Each structure stands twice: as structure tokens, then as C-alpha cells.
DNA sequence: CCCGGCATCATCCGATCGGCTATCCGACGG
DNA sequence: CCGTCGGATAGCCGATCGGATGATGCCGGG
């Protein structure tokens, strides 16, 4: 009774690698692969896997978090184990919020990956050490944490948008954007837009 | 007489994937793997491969470009084919400057990858279409490169300094700072300070 | 020898930003 | 039921920015 796994990753090389690694075990089995949302939907529906290994960066189209959310909305949803390269606070929160059961990094050694898949199949939550650290830091610090909305502002800010443009993009008024910015400055300990972008990238709140 | 290949990538998954893919051919052969500079050095010395498949982002420590440069400095250097995820202009230039014979992206289909390895072994130069396009675009335009002074401004800018403060720091007038900023905006294709910081970090003009 | 790129500086002015104060609302928890 | 928090909104005002325009001096390549 092996654990049935579906791979979702836009890189053929990575899918082949995971396939090769997993085929070397006797209790894990790859039953399907997908490179985008549409394919993932149909493959999961057809194969009903125990665990979906999900990359967050799928190139064009919806990202892994969106795919995760959609898969988790199914009747008997598969457990989703995120396996990706980056781990900004925003990435992690978005993925877990979408219903992922775990979050591992691609530089994990194979045995750890296997253990993670098995644990996920059993319903446990697995987190890479650095991801756990990020979550702990976030939980432990009584300190200021940027809110979801503020992250959105930061992402637009990094694209060089002005307040008016951000407001339009976020469907709020310019006053609201300024309010968010003020909070961001306080929380990041800066007092300019440029400084906020640098600090946000530094702390991996956003990525480039 | 098969082509002997060494893999350099910090992700076990990717190495396994490439290994699996390459073992499916009858004229290519993986003779070694490495995940960092030190390992790459000894593995290449021991196996003397025809081609090294090089990832640029090796996590901690020296990047793939540095490893490439070091390998190319050997007596009978192997040809190096870069195989990576991202392809910013800076990445490409650094890699080619370090002596890489080609630059492919990880989302390339397997047959293309195999063809690239064979071509590299023959001494040809292989470039992914998007990489070629980037180089062409650059060659076509007498490309703007940020000057030393402009980099200095960018670094201060990323610290959130205002024009007056930058001027004081650089021992120039505020007008000069503004002049530099204007040039920076033009060269980076942005029109705000925040955008300039993001673009500069993205292109690795400044480091965080 | 002249041109172009780089660095420097100046002035002007409209647009934008940043800081401040204040209000309102829904959600969550004590 | 009340306090707190995230989020949205408003107005005000001085400081700053961004763009336009123009000028000077130096240096290196054609």
C-alpha cells in the first residue's frame, strides 16, 4: 500500500528528478505529473493521489498557491506538500493559507523529502527548518508584522507605482494607501519608499 | 565514445533528475556530481569531463559563475554549459564572461537539453532563445551601463536616504544627486526611487 | 582636434510624498 | 459588552521629488 503522489512543477527536469528519486523507494509512487493549473486539476481528478508535491512558481499563469487552493476545494482533497525554492514570509503564509499541509525547500536531501511525503500522507504537518524558524519568529515576536494588505502595497511599491496607481490597483482610495505606507514605515523602521523596498526585500517579505 | 558530463547544482532533486534523464541516452554519461565549488573542483579534477552542467544559484557560498571561472582556469578546462532558472542580463553576462560555452534554461525540454550538451561537447555555443534575444537586444543598443557614481547613489538610495543626505554623503551638491538619479531612471527604465531600488537589486547592480 | 560620455552644478515648478489627526466599521476575544 | 486590531477614508501642509533645461570641465577615442 504505497503512497500515491502527483507532481506539480513547471520544470521537466525537476519532475523527472522527483520521479527518479521516488521510484527508488518501495513505499512511494508517482501516479501523475502536471505543469499548470488545468493539467493539475484533471490529473488529480483522474488519479486521486494521497499527496500532491507542489511547486509555487509555475511560470506563466496561476501560481502554486492558487492551484493548492483549488485542489483543496475538491470533495476529497489530496494533501498538498509545497516543495519550492524560495521561502519568503509571504510565500509561506499564502501557501499554508491555501491549505498546504507542509512546506519543504528544494535543497532538501532526498531522505528528508521522502520522510516529508510519508508524514504528509499520514496527515502530519512538515516544515523545513528555515520555514519553521520564520513562522516561529513571526509568532514569537510581539513585534510588528506586516499585514496582508501591507504586503500587497509593498509589492506594488517595488514596481515603482505611485500612491494613485497603487490605489487604483488595490481598489481603495489614495488615503488608504498612504495609511498602509505609514504603517509599513513604522514596522520596517524606515521612512521612505525606497528604504521600505530595500528592507522588504532584505527581510524576504517580498521577492524580486 | 560518449560525452562525459559532470553536474553542478545544489539541489539533489535536480541532480537526480538530470542524471535520470541523461542515463536514458546512449551517448551521454554522468561521471560526477557536485553541489558547491570545493566539490566541483575535486570532482572535475578526478573525472576530467567533457562538459560541466552548471547551475548559477548554488545557495550559500560562491555562485555558479565563480565556479565556472575557476574550472575554466584549469589546464585542460572542461566546457561549461550553464543550466539555470533565471536569465537576467547580469546573470548571462557574468556567466559568459566567466567562460561558459552556453546558457540554457531549466524549463527546456529534455531533447533540447541533450542537443545542447552534445553541441557544447563539440565546441559549439548554445543559447536558449530568450537568452539569445537578451544578448541581441543588448548588442543592438549601445547599452547603458550604470556608472560607478550612479551605483554609489543607488546604494544610498536603497538605504532610504533623501537627496540632501545623499549629497552630503557623496560630497556633491543636491543638484548632482538629482542629475545622477535622472540618469539612473533612464537607464533602468523606471521613474521612481522605489522602482530604481527594486530594479537595481533585480539586476544585481547592488546587493542587499 | 573634436566629439561624446561622465561628473558637476544651477534654477524653476508642478506633482507627490510623509506626517498628523480623526472617524468609521467589522471581527475576534476577554 | 467592550477593547483591540486591521482596514478604509478624509483633509491639511510643509518637505521633497521628478522633469525640463542649460552650463562647465575633464578625459579618452576616432
UniProtKB/TrEMBL annotation, chains A, B:
Domain Response regulatory as annotated: residue spans: 4-121
PROSITE patterns found in the cross-reference section: HTH_LUXR_2, RESPONSE_REGULATORY
Keyword Cell division in annotation: no
Keyword Phosphoprotein annotated: yes
An MF annotation (GO) of this entry: DNA binding
Domain (HTH luxR-type) ranges: 139-204
Keywords: DNA-binding, Phosphoprotein, Transcription, Transcription regulation
CDD domains: LuxR_C_like, REC_NarL-like
GO process annotations (BP): phosphorelay signal transduction system; regulation of DNA-templated transcription
Gene3D superfamilies: 3.40.50.2300
InterPro entries, sorted: CheY-like_superfamily, NreC/VraR/RcsB-like_REC, Sig_transdc_resp-reg_C-effctor, Sig_transdc_resp-reg_receiver, Tscrpt_reg_LuxR_C, WalR-like
Positions carrying 4-aspartylphosphate: 55
Designated name of the protein: Response regulator transcription factor
Species annotation: Agromyces fucosus
